[in-house]
Amino acid sequence: MRRAVQMVFQDPFASLNPRMRVGEIIEEGMISLGVETRAQARQHKVVELLERVGLSATMRTSPMSPVARPCVPPHSSIE
Predict the structure, then answer these.
(1) How many CA atoms lie within 13 A of 18 on its CB side?
(2) Per-residue pLDDT at 10 exceeds 60
(3) Are 17 and 55 in contact (CB under 8 A)?
(4) CB environment 7-38: b (16+ within 10 A), e (fewer)
(5) What Å distances lie between residue 44 and 19, 49, 60, CA to CA?
(6) Pair 27, 46: CB distance under 8 Å
């Protein structure tokens, strides 16, 4: 099990682009890791993953909603 799980530390404010679609964000990681080389199979896998976590397949092509965007506290210096 330990070999199948990897912890990734990252700043969500720097790593999530609110202009990218949810499917693009997932697919970008898949491309980087070489999970699936064929675009159509990769898109199918993105839909499977979205449905597995309880999201609609339409989220693959929908921009991140304001609810899903990371929020910055008003007192934060991040802009």
Answers:
(1) 9
(2) yes
(3) no
(4) eeeeeeeeeeeeeeebbeebbeebeeeeebee
(5) 22, 9, 10
(6) yes
